[in-house]
Amino acid sequence: MSIIVNGSATPLPPDPRVSLLDLLREHLKLTGTKKGCNQGACGACTVLLDGERVVSCLTLAVQAEGRAVTTVEGLAQSDKLHPLQQAFIDRDGFQCGYCTPGQICSAIGMAAELERGVPSHVTGDLTAGTIAASREELAERMSGNLCRCGAHNGIIDAIAATFISKEAAQPYRPDGPEMAA
Asked: What CATH code is assigned to 2-74?
């Protein structure tokens, strides 16, 4: 019985009550995944489980048996950052950086949801085969990941620059066209 963590097989902990978050941080010393609220409300502990975003504080390690877990440490290829990691740097998507690993993992999972056509609360047409990745759509989908420093505009800018068109990836401007209506 094992879990694949960032491409390597890892045995399950003997105690079935261990959360995936504690397995990653305490047992495997992968401290990129952060413990925020430990109640599933802040998103700081978000990782990818078979490519889907989950809050690892509410996921038992045994629930990941035989599955692939990707943490922020597993996104880079050798010495090359994942494009979203680089975009966070280029677009000022962080201040203190505490929420950044969860934001990045969540955004990667969110992009896969968009590709699959999974609607959100703000999706206009629930029957559409594709969903436009507007800034409003991105912000809604990332609303489960909190940033107490106020870097939300940079976070959305980084996600837009990585996953959607150049036009939509323009930096947010409070007096720009997004505010006109």
From this structure: 3.10.20.30
- pTM recorded for the entire structure: 0.89
Which CATH fold would you assign to the domain 83-174? Answer: DNA polymerase; domain 1 (1.10.150)
Three-state secondary structure of the chain: CEEEECCEEEECCCCCCCEHHHHHHHHCCCCCCCCCCCCCCCCCCEEEECCEEEECCCCEHHHHCCCEEECHHHCCECCECCHHHHHHHHCCCCCCCCCHHHHHHHHHHHHHHHHHCCCCCCCCCCCCCCCCCCHHHHHHHCCCCCCCCCCHHHHHHHHHHHHCCCCCCCCCCCCCHHHCC
| pLDDT digits 0-9 by tens, 148-158 | 998 999 999 99
